[in-house]
Specification:
This protein is mostly helical. It contains nine helices and no strands. It has helices at 6-28, 66-69, 75-103, 109-130, 137-164, 169-196, 201-223, 226-229, 234-241. The chain is elongated, with a radius of gyration of 21 Å. Residues 4-231 form the CWH43-like N-terminal domain.
Length: 271
């Protein structure tokens, strides 16, 4: 077992905790309304007697979308930090997982495509974190679309890799868990998009809730890579950067070189 096992868990813990901190700051600074609020007005007038605490009068501009929560300072500073550091960790996880599969002689277009989509997801996160929606709306929405679409494709492709590469009962259990997470991500992203294009306050609020579930779900998915990262070594990064045929085959769940695992089983020969 190596220290790399902490990387996926750190990404999930840091990002989820950080995003909820951003949300809490935005609510307390009255930049968005709480997620439990479903009542919206066409307009609101500032009440001098109402100081501190969450807003009680909300408009569509106060819907607690993740992007809205990170629009204004001071929470925008933390939001940018999460986007930048999270993007780096996502790219590193994708690169290490790609190299790990190469070590197992899993040379395939699916593995390569997974690396590309993961890095694209990271690039989208950089744009989202550094270009706030109220200040660079078009660029922010492009980054969001890229990050969400690439993230969903990444988890779906990795479900296929996990399922077809399972060699032990625990590998199969992890594959099923990832399939469940990918299904949740797919459903919530579709619902979020469908709700978001409507001007109804109820649907906009529903879109925000679906967006939160989608993002947290994807982050949990990344965290599951701790299961395989116990086998990551310095050679894994070398394999990712300079792939070479004929490397020793390693099992997914531990750091020892497998003497019984077929490096190119028929079930994954085309994946």
């Amino acid at each position: 077992m190596t220290a790399w096992i902490l990387l996926p868990v750190s990404l999930s813990a840091f990002s989820i905790t950080g995003l909820w901190t951003v949300y809490a700051m935005a609510v307390m600074n009255r930049h968005v309304c709480p997620v439990e609020n479903w009542s919206y007005n066409e307009s609101c007038f500032p009440d001098p007697a109402e100081q501190g605490g969450p807003k009680t009068c909300c408009t569509l501009d106060d819907v607690p979308l993740i992007s809205k929560c990170g629009t204004y300072p001071p929470e925008s500073c933390l939001f940018s930090l999460i986007g930048n550091l999270g993007a780096f960790m996502v790219a590193l996880i994708c690169l290490l997982r790609y190299g790990q599969l190469l070590e197992q002689s899993r040379h395939s277009w699916v593995n390569t495509t997974t690396l590309i989509t993961g890095c694209t997801n990271a690039a989208g996160l950089l744009v989202v974190g550094n270009f706030q929606v109220d200040h660079a709306k078009s660029l922010h929405y492009v980054g969001t679309g890229v990050a969400f679409a690439a993230g969903l494709l990444f988890v779906c492709l990795h479900c296929a890799l996990s399922y077809h590469g399972a060699t032990a009962p625990q590998d199969l259990a992890m594959a099923y868990l990832r399939i469940v997470l990918a299904t949740i991500a797919f459903v919530t992203l579709i619902l979020s998009g469908v709700f978001f294009i409507h001007e109804s306050s109820q649907l906009q609020h529903g879109a925000a809730l679906c967006e939160w579930v989608f993002v947290i779900d994807i982050l949990i998915f990344y965290g599951t890579f701790s299961y395989e990262f116990g086998a990551v070594s310095s050679e894994t990064l070398v394999a990712a950067l300079q792939p070479a045929p004929g490397r020793a085959c390693k099992s997914s769940g531990n750091s020892s070189t497998s003497t019984h695992l077929n490096c190119a089983p028929e079930s994954i020969a085309m994946i």
